[in-house]
Amino acid sequence: MNVLVCDVGGHNVKILVTGQDEPRKLPSGAALTPQLMVPGAKDLAGDWKYDVVSIGYPGPIRQGRPAAEPHNLGSGGSGSTGKRRSDVRSG
Predict the structure, then answer these.
(1) Is 42 strand, coil or helix?
(2) Residue range 3-20: average pLDDT?
(3) I need a labelling partner for 4 at 20 to 30 A (CA). Which of 17, 60, 86, 89 fits?
(4) Assign residue 79 a region: left if phi > 0, alpha if psi is -120 to 50, beta otherwise?
(5) What number is the average pLDDT over the span 72-78?
(6) pLDDT over threshold 50, residue 83
(7) 73: number of Cβ within 10 Å
(8) Residue of 42, 1, 4, 38 lying closest to 23 (CA atoms)
């Protein structure tokens, strides 16, 4: 099973898949929303094959969901709007 790991940080979103040695990076920051991050990460992972995705999120999680907006990223990650967020599908 190949795992795509996505580390959402304040300066970069870093992704790495099983079997690769070098992570790929997408700049992040206050303007990065989930609507921008998901397609950006999918583009970065374009030629990698993976079965599942594991995401490191820079904020509190309660009952399996983000509980608050991270202070260093754009809004929309906590789901506080009530709208469904896009998910990353297997590559």
Answers:
(1) helix
(2) 93
(3) 60
(4) left
(5) 58
(6) no
(7) 23
(8) 4
What's the Cα-to-Cα distance from 45 to each of 13, 16, 33, rounded to whole Å? 12, 8, 18
pTM here? 0.70
Amino acid at 86: S
User: Bridge-partner residues for 3, per DSSP?
Assistant: 52
Cα dihedral value 17, 43, 88, 69, nearest 10: 100
Q: Which of 1-10, 29-38, 76-85 has the lowest mean pLDDT?
A: 76-85
The three-state secondary structure class of 41 is helix
